[in-house]
Known about the structure:
Number of helices: 7
Family: Belongs to the RecO family.
InterPro entries: DNA_rep/recomb_RecO_N, NA-bd_OB-fold, RecO, RecO_C
Pfam family, one: RecO_C
Radius of gyration: 20 Å
Function: Involved in DNA repair and RecF pathway recombination.
Keywords: DNA damage, DNA recombination, DNA repair
Shape: globular
Largest sheet: 5 strands, mixed, barrel
Helix content: 40-55%
Amino acid sequence: MNPQPAFLLHKRPYRETSALVELLTLEHGRVRAVAQGVQRPGSRSRSRLQPFAPLHVTWVGEGELKRLRLMESHGAAALLAGEGLLCGLYANELLARVLPVEFPVAEVFAFYTALLEALPRPEGRAAALRRLELSLLEALDAAPRFAEPDGRGLDPQRRYRFDIASRAFVPGEPGIDGRTLRLLAAGDWGEPGLAGPAKAVTRAALAPLLGARPLRSRELMRQLAEKRRARQDSVREL
């Protein structure tokens, strides 16, 4: 096979010197594989196989679990820290949890690449995450339908709740106003003031795919937000 552009989503030790890895690849989607010898001290592959670093890989095997043969660096890893790092970990965990194995998602790969470019800049993170989430939902035929369940358009003056069964919006409180939802439907995910509603919509649409088990990265984000609020309260008291 030709070398595949890829990113590491998850890695865990396997036997003495190997690792089980989850990769996001351009043409084959999520690939599970054994990376032999990468845990061995001094292994060149060990330094290459890092999150957020572009790779070129090949593998062999007919079953669901492959064996990596070639693994080459194809550029520097995105330099992420703090909130940007947590957002990257969230994207990796989400894709590893939701994407079926070997389900081609070239558009998701493109939005993931764009996300890594955006994460070092705080102002671009939220919109880039929402675009990745929406591309994932569209690939899995689970994207929200910005209409009422019967297909009628959304009333800008009404408030709506997301309905999981129909993937549409039903009138109700608490909810999001129809005008905001229509802006999101037009693709204005990065417009000022829409970050909160956009996050609420994608989170509701992703919930059935994720099931009851929470994402660890979301818990880390919540803890970080609580620490920030505590620091702000301390400053106000001073």
